[in-house]
Batch of 4 targets.
Target 1
Amino acid sequence: MPADRLLPSTEAQDLIDLAKEIAREELAPIAGKYEETAHFPREQFRLLGQAGLLGLPYSERWGGGELPYEVYLQVLEEIAAAWMSVGVGLSVHTMSCFALAHHGTDEQRDRWLPAMLEGGLLGAYALSETHAGSDAAALSTRARLDGDQYVVNGTKAWITHAGEADFYTTMVRTSDDGGQGISCLLVDAATPGLSAAPPERKMGLTGSTTAQLMFEDAAVDADRRIGEEGQGLKIALSSLSSGRLGIAACAVGLAQAALDEALEYAKGRTQFGRPIIEFQGLEFLLADMAATVETSRAMYLDAARRRDRGLPFQRQASIAKLVATDGAMKVTTDAVQVLGGAGYTKDFPAERYMREAKVPQIFEGTNQIQRMVIARELRKG
């Protein structure tokens, strides 16, 4: 049951059709095998770059597509529906470009952004630390200015693409002034003193590498600082607001894939002489799954349209992330239930979808943090 989309232009429809074709022909056929062997899909990211899908919301001047977030997110949803690890990776890469695209100088953008947007480079976003996850202002990775370089020491945790990325948008402490003492560095992956730990052994998204990122007297040129010293936390939080919409879109794509799998199975499986989709217990379950998918899609599109119009959207982004990721967890769990015993086996992708649905409730700010953001905005009245 393909998503029923209301797109703003024929160009947007053509882009969605391209994303569907890539998803169907290049991603879906190998997703299960790659996930089973924890194989990182670097070639697939290069393919997305060649197709012009790695820089959709950014300026054409630097190689982007200059398309509304409303369109970018629906492309992202189609990619995630075929392969969640690639969808999440696309979202992370887009967020990793945000600091340079929105807070860098023209000279910095001219120098680095084209390769980031055209597929030559893959990005990662390094904010979290073992003791500074939800409390980002507590990070301790320190950068000390020494002449025309920052010397960086510390460890980042839970970094998507760690050890695979070509650049890391990294938040570091440049003074002891709490949240005002954080700065943003665009770190080249080849920087001496920078290394990645072995990948985490995860429940799902095993094709997406996640690891610690370690800085040991890593020297980063001072001209790689994005924005002024002390602006890093502000940059990080503005990046996350947009990144949460990316995760919401990925979660909807995953839920759509689970719904499609459950529908196909329910139409083909017979019991008591008729397809099980005709039994009211399953009809209602599938109807609730469809309602959850479409409600979640509407939430992220509403937030995206606000963003595209320059309106405040932080509260709506948190609501979309909360609703879509909680919804994906429910829909994928219900998909396993529709398939019954078959859903608990690796012969069908439903069990993988269910495992993959858990982590979107955690990253880009846990859903408990989203509730705090929403409540804070409500208090402002």
Target 2
Amino acid sequence: MTLRSVFRRWMDHYFSDEEAVILLVVLVLGFTAVILFGRMLAPFLTALVVAFLLQGPVSWMERRRMPRLLAVFVVFLAFIGVLLALAFILMPLIWNQLVGLVQEAPRMFASGQQLLDDLQERYPNLVTPDQMQNWIDVAGREVTQLGQRALTLSLASLGNVLTLIVYLILVPILVFFMLKDRDRLVGFTISLLPQRRELMTRIWEEMDDQIANYVRGKFIEIIIVGTVAFFTFAYFGLPYTALLAVVVGLSVLVPYIGAAVTTLPVAAVAGFHFGLTNEFLYVLVAYGVLQALDGNVLSPILFSEAVNIHPVSIILAILFFGGIWGFWGVFFAIPLATLLKALVYAWPRGIKQRHLRESAETHTES
């Protein structure tokens, strides 16, 4: 069997059906549009995610016989309230703590250098002077880069403020109309698709509930983990509690990796504030318990209906989609991996099943 014949059989298996070719074209065009125009479409995509998130409460109110328009207004007003609280209460607090942390970085660096000196004196065979100097040089470069990034951020603050204003105006408007005119927008989108879309409908039905549950569950997980982290750090008297709580909450977006990476800033702040004391160990133990409860109790409860995907596949999806789309790529890495898995299983199987069904119907009619 030649390579050409193998390739032809592979093409016949996957692309012999017109609907499969159309589905491939739709996927390629969609991914291409997001990759090329993702920055320009960012407010629209953000509003789409938020509307997808808020559709659950709207549907819940509709099932309680509340008029849809009234349900949309109630949910939208709640969303605006949360958005204003984040913009005028939480964000300034986080910004002030971030500025304070940057200002404290030189002192933290000096404290870390003193800690290395103490380790070298206590354990001369474990930590050599060359290793200690290398660590100091690396930490010095990181502190210098942090200062440069802070300076660049301050110089570009005007552009960031303008971008934030655009988001604060456009995103709520888009969210409102996406919720209010959902049926019209969905109908218009469906009208653009070909009449023969059985395969696309099957894949979308398989993915719809899973994506919705994942998005809502992930937001709930961020809020719960961040809130518990805030009160835990505040109980121990740790500085920068709001900033660390936000970092810990957002770390759940990256399974397996986020918890490990977030340990570094938590340990650094606790070590600088408490030193190598029992309080430092208590903070690390409490943080470890929080991550263990999240991974073994909270996540299984929130994502019990999620498709089982191997950890290696999840990490590869995070690296790939995060490299393409940044934050949103990381956030949607698992749903996108689930979509690819559904495509792999449904594409040839769905086409084959439909051909068998059509053959059976033809045989029955004859």
Target 3
Amino acid sequence: MAIYLTKESKVLVQGMTGAEGMKHTRRMLAAGTDVVGGVNPRKAGRTVDFDDRAVPVFGSVREGVERTGADVSVVFVPPAFARAAVVEAADAGIGLAVVITEGIPVHDAVAFTAHARTTGTRVIGPNCPGLITPGQSNAGIIPPDIAKPGRIGLVSKSGTLTYQLMHELRDIGFSTCVGIGGDPVVGTSHVDCLAAFQEDPDTELIVLIGEIGGDAEERAAAYIREHVTKPVVGYIAGFTAPEGKTMGHAGAIVSGSSGTARAKQEALEAAGVRVGSTPTETARHALDALGSPAPDGAARDGARA
């Protein structure tokens, strides 16, 4: 089982013919993703060869959906065109839009996430690495070779920390890993993923990665306390960040005690979540919760982020 993305998912790539779209479409195909087409109105009717597979280019998302039955779109278009791209995907009946693009204006993200809710389209991102169900499908830029199918569900604001925890826990494996993005407005929250993992029968443990800024982790803690019966372990990036500074992601801004790593850690721990002081310690907490021995080298702690 998995959440949001399975081997049955049919993926369109908006912006497939650009440099980033081409590179990551090739990687998605190599991971077994069923990429059924790209979208570029100026190159409609062409095909793009990716090793042993020729992928057609459609003039619109609607055409791609009608011709292929696509239900997922991965968006690689430039920031100025991202709002229109997501709205187009939602209006065409796409069920899942994965928005990789960074630098999208907040008012555009507000507009397209609100519009997507009216059509029933789930948005992952923006400014995210996407999601992967190892062994089934990969929608985005997550390296497919750092984890195998397994029992852990992962939800993370940070792309880099997604990769690190996947690598740390590669011997156990993952049901689905979701990078939700770190912008102030995102389409899918920690809480959304927690609810989906709670309902997934093959997810036995949840790893939650947060970071400074906002109150998403505090809201996740409240949801865990009331609704999640599976073990959850967590990590919060940004303990050493100075107050009042935007650090990395656009949403990672701290004002006073609001949004600090310490406040988030305390909220999660009050909900029964074991929070690691480093990614490696977080991985050890996960292994302990599953009753699995730590692999060689897992005892080495990195610096606190």
Target 4
Amino acid sequence: MQRCDYLLSQLDVLEAESIQIIREVAAEFERPVLLFSGGKDSIVMLRLAEKAFWPAPIPFPVMHVDTGHNFPEVIDYRDRRVAELGVRLVVASVQDSIDQGRVVEETGRRASRNRLQTTTLLDALEEHQFDAAFGGARRDEEKARAKERVVSFRDEFGQWDPKNQRPELWNLYNTKIRRGEHVRVFPLSNWTELDIWDYIRREGLELPPIYFAHNRMVFERDGMLLADISYANRGDDEPAFEATVRYRTVGDASCTGAVKSAAATLDEVIEEIAATRITERGQTRADDRASEAAMEDRKKEGYF
């Protein structure tokens, strides 16, 4: 007699859970949107959305909160991938927020537009009346992320209060909101960085080339290697030099650090990630080094 094995792999279980979350939100909310930066987590999330509704197209738009200080390779990838899928792209511009007087650009050596994204994001959610925003956050990233529910409630001011979140029993999610409120949804909550890379390998997903080892002019600041670009405000005491690096995460180029690495292939990156004991944000995000509560403070203001 032929024997059938119905055991699922870890990636199969994670994929099924994420697809179920995406479908549930698409069914319960009127205007969901997927936040897409061109980074590896949002690339995986876009792939899950594609699978969730195949062969129909993805039934909601994707939105990029654009600081204007992006890596060109990532923007090129973003535009190409969205065009391939035929998905509507909404670009919320931090530069527009500055020009309209909604936010004031920071000055000084460590100036960054990262925090300014909060206002731009909230304005875009209100303008387009999006009531659910899919984000690529994972609970393994840092402490504030670990407090998030899968369906994370935001009040009418876009603020997150960890004490005012709905219980999530098994796979039951409370999707009821009043007008003006919205939720952030994190289908990748139970994934780890290594899961993301394993899934990218299994699905054969293309990534922006900065995720792999390449030569780049960088300089050191606060123990991190930042790209030598005009808006990084490199000082005279921060000499630039060429190094073989790659990026573990993608964000505002003024505060996203590279790591020295010779990992030029998926297998080499996965081997490197499996051996590391430092989270990607702890190693590569200057804005999260301000204090242990930096991310939580931004989330309470309405950040991703």
